[in-house]
Amino acid sequence: MNVNGHAAIVTGGASGMGAETARALAAAGAKVAVMDVNKDALKGVAKEIGGLAVECDVTSAGSAEAAVAKAKAAHGAARVLVNCAGIATAKRIVGRDGPMPLEDFTKVVNVNLVGTFNLMRLVAADLYAEEALDDIGERGIVINTTSVAAYEGQIGQAAYSASKGGIVSLTIQAARDLSGKGIRVMTIAPGFIATPMLLGMPREVQDSLAQQTPFPKRFGRAGEYSALVMHIVGNQMLNGDVIRLDGAARMQAK
What are the pLDDT digits (tens) for 126-161? Predict the structure, then answer.
């Protein structure tokens, strides 16, 4: 799929992998709506790429519906959706203060998993009413973001791992669900990527994580994520699967 002239939505687009993806899509000629809850950073990225800044709480049906409608009014139905919005909370199932508060678990699942589904359902519904882009029948693509923690969750990652594991399981099911209308669904599972979330960790934690990558022995770059997004968009045979972007890293227990 050639994105030139077509609409795209990137959630979590105010920073990190989302911001780099918004830049890459815009550079390829897409009309990009950048969505996030961080107003100031959101406006900065949108202004930089000549895109549309749309405030959006991905956990809210009403907020997401209004955001997608705003993007559609400005650019048309999104042919590309990249879900990068996500949070992480490190807490053991049972810690020193007792069981993990249920609201802490629920918050992470709501942002990472429910938020991903929320935007996917709305963008896909809009695409059902659009014409196919080619004689094969492709109408668009959804690219979700999981994590290697979906497979090897570390101690304290119960909520994060569960939310990201749900995205992995959703991938093939959603691809099958939407295949009749020519909508592809793919997922990227990044390893240790140098994003604000990871770089906010203590230095010793960062050093330990970087050493868990066999090669190259460094953190991945947001631009490597966005480059993979662009390849997936352009390769029609990529559908219903998860691609690990991790330098062969397998997370240890802690």
Answer: 999 999 999 999 999 999 999 999 999 999 999 999
For the chain, the average pLDDT equals: 95
The CA radius of gyration of the chain, in Å to the nearest whole number, is 18
Catalytic residue among 128, 151, 160, 225: 160
What residues does each domain of the chain span?
7-244
Measured CA distances, 82 to 54, 79, 122, 147 (Å): 14, 10, 13, 15
**Residue 200 above 90 pLDDT?**
no
Query: For a pLDDT cut of 90, what percent of the chain falls above it?
Result: 87
3-state SS assignment for residue 43: helix
In angstroms, rounded to a whole number, what is the distance separating the alpha carbons of residues 96 and 74?
50
Residue 52: pLDDT band with limits 50, 70, 90:
very high
Concerning whether 225 is annotated as a catalytic residue, the answer is no
What DSSP element (H or E) covers 10? strand 7-11
| Domain 7-244 = CATH 3.40.50.720 | yes
How many C-beta atoms lie closer than 10 Å to residue 146's C-beta? 29
199, 113 contact by CB (below 8 A): no
How large is the average pLDDT for residues 57-75? 98
- Residue among 83, 55, 91, 79 nearest 131 (CA): 79
- Model confidence pTM above 0.90: yes
Strand partners, 206: none
Q: In whole angstroms, give the CA distance from residue 170 to residue 188.
A: 13
Q: What is the DSSP letter of 127?
A: H
